[in-house]
Amino acid sequence: MAAVPDWGAPTQFDLTNPYNTSMSFNVQTASGIYLFDPAGCSLDFTIRSTTDNVPQSDGSILHTRFLTGANMPLTVQLWQDLDTVACDSLLREMLDNLSGALRSLINAGDNEGRIAWEVDGGNERILDDARLLVYPTYQEGSPGVVTFTLDSKYPYAQNLSEATPSAVSDGVPQTLVNTGTAAYFPVFKVNQIGGVVAATPVTQFTITVTQGTDVVQFVYLGNALPGGVSIAASHFAEINCFNNTIYKDGDSSNLKAGVDELNSEYPSFPTGTFDVQIDGCDMDVLWTSAWG
Fold first, then answer.
1. β-bridge mates for residue 283, sequence order
2. N or C: where does the chain have the smaller number of CB atoms within 10 Å of the terminal CB?
3. Structural domain tally of the chain?
4. Per mean pLDDT, which range of 15-29, 113-127, 222-236 is the poorest?
């Protein structure tokens, strides 16, 4: 799969976690080498589909298919160095470090669970919001082996470094390129550009994503809808397209009542070249390329 390089050394993987901040795999550390066994490692994406019973001779038809996220089963050998297996006190230390890191990922906070690696060409990628899915098991031997599974709610791997937010000015289409193999769900910060929130209110806006003849729009009508409100001056609306949410300042009041649900979709950014436009105000777009 394009999202994953060779699992074994010298390809380094780094696991960000609340317990010990970061753990490195496939490289020498002060606590030995946590060495991935390629035969027991993979990155898997699964498809879920739903069916409708329809009055036809061949029965049900599949009508919706979507990815359910990413699973990463991992098998780790525990070595003191490339020539000596870990044992005694070092083995216990390595098991404790690994156990603590993985347990802390059961219900980690936002941006506290990431596993990152580098592919050919120097492009670093991550599984974001990585969580422990299958509890680690230890098998004694020479070397000792630990198996566990991480997962992510996102159905793709993405660039480790989030691209500089793309600034989109009112009424001016911005051409972007997703160089990966999977569509990416962006975050829009509406009424903000270049990280600066506008000092003017926004009553309505429309976001349009266009690739060829495919057009997706997100329409906000604000107080023209029951319960809807305008975006006040010096505030922004954060739209998370994966979670299908829109909140004032990202964590304040819910603005969903102002969304024209009948004419809106929470867009994803397709692979290849596409245009993004907003009419009604400026915005920043947080996004990156994705693989899956």
1. 168, 190
2. N
3. 2
4. 113-127
